[in-house]
């Protein structure tokens, strides 16, 4: 996509513009908050399939996120192939077993107690889609030479937020999953050394009887996450 040739700065008129009244803005902000309040991380997935086109739209949404120097330092691998999901599960569970056997350290394991998680990750096969998110630590020009990316974790984090919101808007649930280390995903998915796997997102419909841990409902109140310095 990028070439060594200099791209001049070319200002274009803002292509899209919204012009809501203050009341409309208030209503829309409230509607979106209500929608996002209904997002819950789900650990038990139904095997109901999800059309590929929905996943493609959600990933396209993620690709609209802002990024450092607009380098878009992300790559997504979407997997519905059962054999590949099974291999990812096996590798992830092997890492998780080490983690839960003590590798994670006492403090971390204690912090996870309220979530009720353990090394078993059946969702990696039950969920119809796994989306693996890679961060591109550096990019490569058309001529094969490297260029730097900037604010990579921030950019990929924002894109992942867009992705999760887009999946939720489509009526799907997901679980962010981060086996540690995740290097095995480069091998399984044929991704280059320049890319660091940052997360596996299991995506689908919740299973009948899916639960959420009570602790997940405890969100910090606005007063604890916002201080306003009004003029
Ligand atoms: N990767 C492990 C452990 C884990 C870590 C955090 I931080 C969580 O919020 C949840 C789990 C696992 O997926 O079980």
Please tell me about this protein's structure.
- This protein has 231 residues and is an alpha+beta fold.
- It has a single domain, classed as NADH Oxidase.
- The chain has helices at residues 22-37, 52-62, 82-103, 106-112, 123-126, 152-169, 184-189, 222-225, and strands at residues 74-79, 129-136, 138-140, 146-148, 173-177, 195-204.
- It has a four-stranded antiparallel beta sheet. A two-stranded antiparallel ribbon has the order 3-4.
- Strand 3 and strand 4 form a beta hairpin.
- The longest helix has 22 residues, at 82-103.
- The radius of gyration is 20 Å and the shape is globular.
- The termini are far apart.
- The model has no long low-confidence stretch (mean pLDDT 96).
Chain-averaged pLDDT: 96
User: Globular, elongated, flat, extended or rod-shaped: what is the shape?
Assistant: globular
Strands ordered across the widest β-sheet: 1-2-6-5
CATH-defined topology: NADH Oxidase
Total tally of structural domains? 1
- Major sheet size, sense and barrel closure: 4 strands, antiparallel
Number of strands: 6
Catalogue the unreliable spans: none
Ligands bound here?
A: 3-iodo-tyrosine
For the termini, the CA-CA separation is 44 Å
Percent helix, as a range, is 25-40%
Beta-strand percent range = 15-25%
- SSE pattern: HHEHHHEEEHEHEH
CATH architecture designation: 3-Layer(aba) Sandwich
* CATH class call: Alpha Beta
Q: What oligomeric state is this?
A: single chain
Structural class: alpha+beta
DSSP helix count?
Answer: 8
Cα-based radius of gyration, to the nearest Å: 20 Å
Fourth-level CATH superfamily: NADH Oxidase
